[in-house]
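the three lines:
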Amino acid sequence: MWIIKRDLLLAVRRQSDVLTTLFFFIIVVSLFPLSVGPEMNMLRTMAPGVVWVAALLASMLSLGRMFSNDYLDGTLEQMLLSPQSLSLLVLGKALAHWLVTGVPLVLMAPVLGIQYDLPVDALFVLTVTLLLGTPVLSLIGAIGAALTLGLRGGGVLVSLLVLPLYIPVLIFGAGAVEANMAGVGFDAHLSLIGAFLLVSLVFAPWAAASSLRVSLE
Amino acid sequence: MAINWFKYSSPASFYSLAGKMIPVFVVASVILLVAGLYVGFFVAPTDFQQGEAYRIIFIHVPAAWMSMFLYVVMAFWAGIGLAFNTRLSSMFATAIAPTGAMFTFIALWTGALWGKPMWGTWWVWDARLTSELILLFLYIGFMSLQAAIDDPRRADKAGAIIALVGVVNIPIIYFSVQWWNTLHQGASVSVNQAPSMATTMLMGMLIMVLASWMYSIAVILKRTRVIILERESHTAWVAELRKKEAVR
Amino acid sequence: MLQGMSLACVRGDRELFTDINFSLEAGGLMQVSGPNGSGKTSLLRMLCGLSNPAAGEIRWCGTAIRSLGGDYLAAMTYIGHLSGTKDDLTAIENLRISSALAGSEINATQANDALRYMGLGGRETLPVKVLSQGQRRRVALARLLVCKTALWILDEPLVALDVMAVQLIQELLEQHLKQGGMVVMTTHQEIDITAVSIMQLQLA
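prediction for all of em together
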């Protein structure tokens, strides 16, 4: 899929965009101990939730870039006029968005988990849930990004639209890590996140493609 | 007896039809509201467990039902508007949103009022309360998206997409929250009502539900009328109407 | 081949145009003209299927473009106000990507040739953001050289181009029309193109 290649190429030319998202994630996670105190036991129980919420916010903040640059320079228009399926193009763009923003978060999460004194297997579970969950964020986010294209205050609006829809992923993502730390199995959580991923892979590109058509009309 | 229902799908004829229907629903809702409140506050017996405080459910339960139901109705009409490009159904969906959000807010508010004497706290992270809160977010998202878009046609369609996405997600969200709640069984208390309810209590509640229905229909029709006038202000029939109003 | 049947366009409360009819045959050029805000761009966006007419229908070879979908898009090239080029990509990357997007992939040599023809020789590997307005326009228009579509819809293609480039584009259009292609364009400039049929569509 060359659309993924294109977006990755663009990301390479504009590395600062990728890095700001990653640093945002790191800073938000690091702020929590400063606000609630450095007590390790409490931090350990908070860690999965904190990392997940920070990942949610970081992924959401970068949504604005998914379509708006292409919208401003007219390449989005050309995508709509492509004889190829728009849903597939959107899927490609969402995957590229995930590779550029989601994957760095996944790679960074274990390091941040160590700050919170998470045990090794919890770190592992955290990384796996993020690996499965962040693509869902990119896919659902694509709908919000497409709907708010070119609107005043689109950035804030996108959070209103998208954050409630992120809740299931958040619950099961953070829940899996907690279950692991409590010594209960976390397979069910992982399969549910996997199910969310499959469902959003099927429906989100389609919904986002219709949203793009509406927004560009 | 065949009625040509499509006749009423044009904004102009809907406008006059709605104008005739509104007073009926207003009267019905006032009567039912008074009756329901009377039954609820004076006739229904005091609950032996919860005392007088339980009476808030006469407002709380209908509001909670309406809030969920109206979201589905809203998404339904928005979806119809998107699929068949019918302007009126989209306007209808837009008109439903504020009423739905209001009922969601009332449900949350009265829930808190009930929670204080029952559980000793205004808010618990109970599955139902949390879902209701998320429902409020969904309503607010829908309304702010529509408010941010200047072109009404685009606002209709964009709103329809987010409403439909929301409707697909509501069961998933509800199930997730339910599950999350059972995992975190700490301070939370089950909100389940007592299984058996006195007949008069049930009566009062049903009357209140009907009253909410009548109220919703009246307000939504009224709001649809206003939206029609706004959107169709350039058309001939609105100009005609304006002339008539001026004469009167 | 391309037919517009009683097209109407509404923006907000205002009707931009109503009852526009035309029929464009193979080898025909249609020039859409009218003052600013008369709906030229809206009409072109309708013709390429980006927006729906408030009333009426657009047909391609006798079938409504709505129902044709991808088949119509594969036969059409649209170059709008926005250049459709990415600032951070080089001219050659831009051209290759936009061609791939339009469904006809080209190799580096083809892209190079097209850019050289457009007078961009030596600048193929510069990022587009360092090029001038006119040069960016040329990058966008270079797509016309490598596409194999029958219908070209061009919104102000000559804007920001110098005399040489205008000449170049006119020749290109003439050749396309000679081969049985079709062109719908808006322009404020005088154009000098010979074709089988030239139509003027005046929007009020």
